[in-house]
Amino acid sequence: MPTILIDALTYASWLFIVSLGLTLVFGVLKILNIAHGSFYALGAYTAASFVGWAASLKWAPGFSIVAMLLAAVAVAAVLAPATERALLRFFYGRDEVLLVLVTYAMFLILEDATKLLWGANPYYVSEPYGMFGSVSIGQQTYVGYDFVLVGLAIAVGLLVWWGLNRTRQGKIVLAVMHNAEVAASMGVNISRVYMVAFSIGIFLAAIGGAFTAPMISVQPGVSVGVIVVSFAVVIIGGLGSIQGAAVGALIVGLARSLAVHVAPVAELFSIYIVMAVVLMFRPEGLFQRTQVRKI
Amino acid sequence: MTASRPTSARAWRQAAIAAALCIGGAVHAQETFKIGIVSFLSGQAAESFGIPAVNGAKVVIDAFNKGAAPAPYNKVGFGGVKIEPIYVDENGGATKQVQELRNLYDRDKVDAVLGYVGSGDCLAVAPVAEEMKKFLILYDCGTPRIFEDNKLSYVFRTASHAAMDNVALARYLKAKNIKVQTFNMINQDYAWGQDSKKDFTLSMAKLYPAAKPGEDQLPKFGAGQYGTEISALMSKNADITHSSLWGGDLQAFILQAGPRGLFKRSQVVFSAGDHVLPGLGDKMPDGVILGARGAYGLMSPKSALNDWWWNLYSKAYNVYPVQAPYRMVQSLLGLKLAVEKAMAANGGKKPTPEQLAAALANSEWDSPAGKIRMALGDGHQAIQETAIGKTRYDAGKKMVVIEDIVRFPATCVNPPANMKSEEWIKAGFPGATGCP
């Protein structure tokens, strides 16, 4: 049982970091960002490059963690405002299906752009994965890095929650989430809020990718797997809800961990059956209030 | 002045038409043999399989067109006709591939198509080539079902199917007297992983009747995160842990399982793992038993042809060739000999698909990985030798080397012509010869 819980927690923490950005972008901009996985991949690739440069400059191994953080910041600072200003803002207020198509096109473009920049060969940055030693619990040996990810997920979640609920800027974002028109009439600069929220969402995708890079080989296609399961998380939790993303990630992590240990053949099925059950009783997701439709 | 303009314009137009006709004539005079080459140029299979294979095709076709390949492959192009490749991305699913195949035959007028890594893609395109009566070589995909469940006239596969890989792995364990009482498995949850799991389980049941299967993990293709699966494998510790994972999935599994000690607790065996060795380097644990789906890469046999191919590829790409480019080159070598044989029988003219099919069926040729024989599926399915070995990182060479290599003749690890692979394994490998 402890093994199932630990596996659930480590998987959920990874999932939460990625899903948090997805749900934040939807909550503020009302965009279901299919390209979220591409920004995750860009975070992984940039981290691989930054850690590689740090190593070639013979900087201390501990700096690789800083390099990974900087990689996520770089992706968010450069690409997010450019994407939001040059593309997305022209589609605000349009049909949600159109926005899904726009972000899908973005996903395809970024996939090829990534391949053009980094090529098709894999990148390895496994050094940070071994930096935190290992922990023996019962029969199992866990890598310390897995628990660093749990800590990172908690820190990121608390920071986003605190930023939204305990700061003036965060309350403005919440106001925009609830009703953009009323917020605009009160003098809120909606464009700025959209750009900042999108940048934070992309930073969360990129940091997810950057901190996953040491555990995988970074290569074309890494963006695809993460996006599908992230959608399941935010749908279970309720699109646009931070608490929902946390609970959704824990539910998915637990369901998957149970399936892998007890009935491996049902691994994928377990995630989507949980999602189906939640949607049967809470069609808006666990933490989303029923919306009043404007006619 | 004004009166002369139309005359001048007409003259230019006539000159342009004449020039175009001349160019057209010249193009017609330089007839080429067009090959559609289909492999993954994007997506998750590109890095490990598609792009290395296409890279292999590029250097070999270039060598053919220069007449720079060793005998008997030293005629320019195919029998003097230059080869014109058209590369197509396999990414996008079987439905897209069916359309792309039709485009290659109908729009691009290719003389042959050579391609497909995905078993699903192979199963989808084979009947289309048959229906269109066009020549098709499947160079990589592994599913035995294509020729075991169908009788095909225009379709060929120039590499062994996947049953060989797992039979050879089980035979290697036996040949090395490795004690196996229990074995765990982790394979991707699609045709390739399921077939590999079945073939390995059936082979173990025959060679190690007392061995009990334990964990049977089936993560989805492209999962990337294997922490939970590794916990499950370590909870039910076994003598052997078998896997047919490949590409990014295999790399991620190795990177995550290594620090957790799985490779120390259990003898890990990979049925198709050679292609990750150049990239992983010292991150690849020592003592892992692996195959390459043929005697490829570091397990390839010593020969002049292999030396030529190894140098050609290594010089062009600064890395040694692994299984995917090997399968590509053996396919092109077989096609070259078949085209030249059919051309000779056709008075030196380009052959029809029927003539080409007749030339390739039941043929055999030397490849860098040894002899390829079209022995199964009425002469449409190849068999070949394979090899299995054990990894060790050589710090001096700064690369992973493979030791304790055992070679298995084609007749030891492939079923005979009259049996399906599953029946053959279940029956205890009747007719297998030359096994070490």
Describe the structure.
The complex is a heterodimer of chains A (about 300) and B (about 425). Chain A contains eleven helices and two strands. Chain A is an all-alpha fold. Chain A has a single domain (about 1-280), classed as Orthogonal Bundle (ABC transporter involved in vitamin B12 uptake, BtuC), CATH 1.10.3470. In chain A, a hairpin with a 2-residue loop joins β1 (about 135) and β2. Chain B is an alpha/beta fold and about 425 residues long. Chain B has two domains: about 30-160 and about 300-385, Rossmann fold; about 165-290 and about 385-425, 3-Layer(aba) Sandwich (Rossmann fold). The longest helix of chain B is centred in the N-terminal third of the chain and has 26 residues, at about 5-30. At the A-B interface, α1, α4, β2, α9 and α10 of A face α2, β7, α8 and α9 of B.
SSE order and pairing:
The complex is a heterodimer of chains A (295) and B (436).
Chain A: H1 2-29, H2 36-56, H3 63-86, H4 96-118, E1 134-137, E2 140-143, H5 144-166, H6 168-178, H7 180-185, H8 190-212, H9 222-237, H10 242-262, H11 267-281
Antiparallel strand pairs in A: 1-2
Helix pairs in contact in A: 1-5, 1-8, 1-9, 1-10, 2-3, 2-4, 2-8, 2-9, 3-8, 5-6, 9-10, 9-11, 10-11
Chain B: H1 4-29, E1 32-39, H2 46-66, E2 82-89, H3 94-106, E3 112-115, H4 119-132, E4 136-138, H5 145-148, E5 155-157, H6 163-175, E6 182-186, H7 191-207, E7 212-217, H8 227-235, E8 240-243, H9 247-260, H10 262-265, E9 267-270, H11 277-280, E10 289-291, H12 304-317, H13 323-345, H14 353-360, E11 364-367, E12 370-376, E13 381-383, E14 386-394, E15 399-408, H15 410-413, H16 421-426
Parallel strand pairs in B: 1-2, 1-3, 3-4, 4-5, 6-7, 6-8, 8-9, 9-10
Antiparallel strand pairs in B: 10-14, 11-12, 12-13, 14-15
Helix pairs in contact in B: 2-12, 2-13, 3-4, 6-7, 13-14
Q: Which topology of chain A does CATH recognise?
A: ABC transporter involved in vitamin B12 uptake, BtuC
The helical percent of chain B reads 40-55%
The best one-word shape of chain B is globular
Largest interface: A-B, 44 and 39 residues
- The low-pLDDT segments of chain A are none
Number of domains of chain A: 1
Structural class of chain B: alpha/beta
Do you know the CATH topology of the largest domain in chain B?
Rossmann fold
Assign the CATH class of chain A: Mainly Alpha
Strand order within the widest beta sheet of chain B:
7-6-8-9-10-14-15
Structural class, from helix and strand content of chain A?
mainly alpha
Overall strand count of chain B: 15
* Overall residue-averaged pLDDT value of chain A: 91
